[in-house]
Design a protein that fits this description.
This protein has helices spanning about 1-25, 35-40, 45-50, 60-90, 95-115, 125-145, 170-185, 195-200, 205-210, 215-245, 245-270, 275-304; strands spanning about 155-160, 165. By secondary structure, it is mainly alpha-helical. Strand 1 and strand 2 (about 165) form a beta hairpin. Helix 1 runs parallel beside helix 4 (about 60-90).
């Protein structure tokens, strides 16, 4: 009895560190925060909390007690590691291997996705869902012109010597809001990487920069979009996965494969055919695949 009470008291501490693991996973393209939540045994509780937070008044205090440490842990991890990823992607030496590492991570997650449901046979309607998912990322990134130059933002005000207030166009603000919705929606599905989708949309590096430089306007807009995506889309995704799971996963696979092409195109912009970067890139590709594939196998064992 005493042991149970003690575990109950320190549960927020455990949930904080679980949130940190989920936060790090959400930063890395190809690694799914949803999978990490599932492996650590809090996925179903997390989805229930998100889905019923505003509708179930009786359990709201319980939901807050559970959710706050997880959220703060995730935010802490993102703030701690965003600068590292931003540095790697802007480095002349490490940018190419980093992109290849991300490609490996995304490729390594595909075996999990294509076998995630017991019935994944190819059917015309499922192929249609796949094409819609594939086309959505390509069309959106092609037709919506975005200001991807993070250096173009003029800092108008700095608060507490840390938080930067900048100008932002309405068009780019709406795009960031949309990216927040799509990314957060993907994050709640095990096996699907929100960062991979964000990378495919061409905003991964920018969002890392916004976090590392604490650019308030951009982060608030993206954060509101993410909140809308989590609250609204978690219920929609939960509904689709229960009613039409195979079609939904074909749609998700389309999104993920489209993100691979987008990442490859981005990596080719600074591709170097020298011995060191090519060797590092091949090693990074293999390491990324092995990590993502290994995580998916751990997830399967956790489900068994």
């Amino acid at each position: 009895m005493k042991k149970k009470k003690f575990l109950k008291k320190i549960e927020p501490v455990f949930n904080f560190f679980k949130g940190m693991i989920i936060g790090v996973a959400n930063l890395v393209p190809g690694v799914s925060g949803g999978t990490m939540a599932l492996v650590m045994g809090i996925y179903e509780r997390l989805i229930e909390t998100i889905s019923e937070f505003f509708t179930n008044k009786k359990k709201r205090k319980q939901y807050i007690f559970f959710l706050l440490p997880v959220v703060f842990g995730g935010i802490a991890a993102i703030l701690l590691f965003a600068r590292t990823f931003s540095f790697l992607l802007s480095s002349d030496i490490f940018s190419q291997p980093t992109y290849f590492f991300f490609i490996g991570l995304i490729l390594g997650s595909l075996p999990f996705l294509v076998t995630v449901h017991h019935d994944m046979r190819i059917r015309p309607i499922r192929v249609l869902f796949f094409v819609i998912g594939l086309g959505l990322v390509v069309l959106v990134t092609f037709f919506i012109g975005r200001d991807n130059d993070v250096d173009a933002f003029k800092i108008n005000l700095t608060l507490f010597n840390m938080i930067n207030i900048t100008d932002i166009s309405i068009k780019y603000g709406l795009w960031l809001f949309f990216c927040g919705i799509v990314t957060s929606s993907a994050m709640v599905i095990p096996g699907v990487s929100g960062s991979a989708i964000l990378l495919g949309l061409g905003e991964y590096r920018n969002v890392l920069y916004f976090v590392s430089e604490l650019m308030a306007v951009q982060l608030i807009i993206f954060g509101i979009g993410a909140l809308v995506g989590i609250v609204v889309c978690a219920r929609l995704i939960d509904y689709c996965l229960k009613r039409i799971p195979s079609n939904t996963y074909y749609f998700i696979i389309g999104l993920v494969i489209a993100s691979i092409f987008q990442v490859v195109m981005q990596s080719l912009e600074s591709f170097k055919l020298f011995l060191l970067p090519v060797t590092l890139s091949i090693a990074a590709l293999g390491a990324g695949f092995a990590i993502a594939y290994g995580v998916s196998k751990i997830k399967r064992k956790a489900e068994a």
